[in-house]
Amino acid sequence: MPIFDPGYQHWSGELSGHGWRWLAIARHGYRIGMKNYLLRIIMLVAWIPAIALGFMLCLWGLVERKSELVMPLVAMLDMFDPEVIANPKEYRAEIWTLCYDTFLLMELRFSMILVLIVGPSLISQDLRFNALPLYFSRPLRRIDYFMGKLGVIGAFLGMVLIIPSIVAYVLGLLFSLDLSIIPDTLPLLAASVGYGIVMTLSTGLFILALSSLTRNSRYIALFWLAVWFISSVVGGVLASVDQEHRRHAAYRRSAEISVAQPNANRPPADRQREQAARMADTRQMRQQEWLAEEQQAAKSNWRPMVSYTANLSRIGQAMLNTDAAWRKLSLNKPAEERDRFLLENLGSQYPWYWSAAVILGLMGLSACILNFRIKSLDRLK
Amino acid sequence: MLFRLQNIVKTYGPVTALNNLTVTAPTGAIGLLGPNGSGKTTMIRTLLGLIPVNQGSGTILDLDFRTRQLDIRRMVGFAPEDECLFPQVVGVEFVAYAGELVGMKTKDAMQRAHEVLDYVGLGEARYRRAESYSTGMKQRLKLASAIVHDPKLLILDEPTNGMDPAGREEIIELSRDLAHNKGMSLIFSSHLLPDVEAVCDHILVLGAGKLLAEGKIQDLKQLHQQCYEVRLKADPAPFAHKLTNLGCKAAMRDDLIIVQLPDGQSPQLIWTLAAEQKQQIRHLRPQRSTLEEIFLTAVEQQ
Fold first, then answer.
1. Does B271 lie in the same domain as B259?
2. Chain B: residue nearest A377 by CA?
3. One domain for residues B105 and B241
4. Exposed site from A123, A326, A371, B127, fewest CB < 10 Å?
5. d(CA B255, nearest CA chain A) in Å
6. Where in the sequence is the domain holding B122, given as residue range(s)?
7. Contact at 8 Å (CB) between B142 and B80?
8. Which of B169, B191, B219 is the last residue of a domain?
9. Is residue B297 part of a domain?
């Protein structure tokens, strides 16, 4: 029993407006999430690519300034073409783009893991403990509730996607000491922040919709893993099968031509040399044809779209304009290597808006599920 | 005036939950009575602006419930009937979060949460997970989270359901204190008539979505003409028999004799008979209706 019990006291403080009410839910969810030890570990690991991004941008700033500190290191690492090293400002936007692209691709995986840890319990636990009457009997609308829950996902993804992008950008600026870098790279910053928002909206709505389907968050976590891995595996397998099919067709054509041109009336040694030369020519020609065919096929290859993460990745590529960066870098390669270089480095080439349509469709479906599952009090028990 | 509803009609498909309900309630402690399905919960949800009505208008705390729902919910504290919890939090976080949802700043909400938890008697359990609380503690936690922002009106929906007598008494005591000593208006919905009688000054009796009876409890419990409660020191049965012989109607209720005197007679008849029989009268007073009688009469008249 307290020594001094003042009893009930009136309170005369100010209440905030309705507009920011969702923030209370987001803040609460963030606090709950941060209590999870595993989540904190994953967050720390997820910052390693961010540190690498910052390091690379700083390094490039020093390369632009021809700093003696880093030039021997860059030469030793042999990461860049001599032409790129000779004119670093000329290739600034491309190098930054590829750094951001690599960073976002790695963070995509970490984001999926973070969503897996944070997301499943966001609504399912409220359903399990019947918390919705407590929410909706307060001055909250359903949209505030959804925004608050989405804000929790946004807070965690923002910490590994958006904030590192901005910090690395500022560090890159500081190490470059050249104001012309801003117009060159500002669209990149906008694209990476925009991609963070797309990731948050897409994964956030999807996991919230799943979370509203059951009171057991373990099922949701399993389903999320299944969506992530199975869709990736199926997309990869379909793409491989398609590629193998084209490769076999090309080999068959090559073999048919070799057999169809027998030599006659020549000495055997000459015949052998001629045959070997013809086969080498044919092989090279077929190789070029196959590369061209692959590039052509990549433009309409829909199979990667089966994978949820591949769709997000394709949108990221389009927002950062990664293909243009690779194409510019490919110009430094010898003409005969260019196609192979592009084929190896360019990602999926199908129109980015196909992936955007898939992601938008999933977001729409998620919104419908949420609308159907989370009722206001008039339809509750 | 606490609230006013005019010609409210609310239907759920073919079921009419509120049927042209018109009611005006004064400030103070209001008891909401009615059998299951009488529309009590629908009326509470209407007052909170949680459901759209088919027809009718009204105000609560002078705000139109059809257009100012969010403002109303800022001024009202509501503890729902069902067991409901914010998951994964300790008691003090639970109450502070409830305050933040209403719009309190984080620091204010936390400070206030400690105060109200002390008030409802959960000070010692404030750092325990809410899921581990007993039923009575959960009810008090809901009450604390409903009053954390110091509402003008507190709505308690079946707050004593499923509680042991001690816990029930604590909730009643807290509700009575808030309503009578702290100037907070209260709507107390319950099936338990003694609880309502212990807390409220005014009652509304609903049945089939209509208002069956309303008024101050003291006014409704009117005196019965020529009817008295008598308790004796000795066995009451022979005395009741003697009263019957004198033309009275006498009925036993527990250890009381309920005596209906004939017209023209006064209670002096009872005193005289007791003196003659050498009986000691311990209790003699005019009979009043009980809340149970008021409730049953209202429901029967429906």
1. yes
2. B50
3. no
4. B127
5. 40
6. 3-219
7. yes
8. B219
9. no
What's the rounded Cα separation, in Å, for the pair B253 and B256?
Answer: 5
Shared-domain flag, residues B146 and B256: no
> For chain A, which residues make up each domain, given as ranges?
19-235+309-373
Residues 6 or more apart from B136 whose CB is under 8 A from it? B163, B164, B166, B167, B170, B171
Unique residue bearing structure tokens 């003694």: B194
Does one domain contain both B277 and B162? no
pLDDT reported for residue A9 = 86
**Interatomic CA distance for residues A97 and A91, integer angstroms:** 10
Dihedral sign, Cα of residue A43, residue A44, residue A47, residue A49:
negative
Query: Any long-range contacts for A331-339 (C-beta under 8 Å, 24+ apart)?
Result: A332/A81, A332/A83, A332/A84, A333/A81, A339/A288, A339/A291, A339/A292, A339/A295
> Does residue B165 share a domain with residue B53?
yes
pLDDT in tens, B132-169: 999 899 999 999 999 999 999 999 998 988 888 888 99
DSSP state, B302?
-
Nearest to A148 by CA among A291, A256, A11, A18: A18
Best CA proximity match to A167, nearest among A187, A193, A191: A193
Q: B87–A129: do the CB atoms touch at under 8 Å?
A: yes
Looking at the fold, whether B104 and B124 belong to one and the same domain comes out as yes
**pLDDT band at residue A189 using 50, 70 and 90 as cut-offs:** very high
The type of residue at A327 is R
From the list A2, A133, A140, the residue facing B123 with the nearest CB is A2
Residues of chain A that touch chain B, judged by Cβ-Cβ distance less than 8 Å? 2, 5-18, 21, 24-25, 27-28, 32, 35, 121, 125-126, 128-141, 376-378, 381
Q: pLDDT tier at A345 (50, 70, 90 boundaries)? A: confident
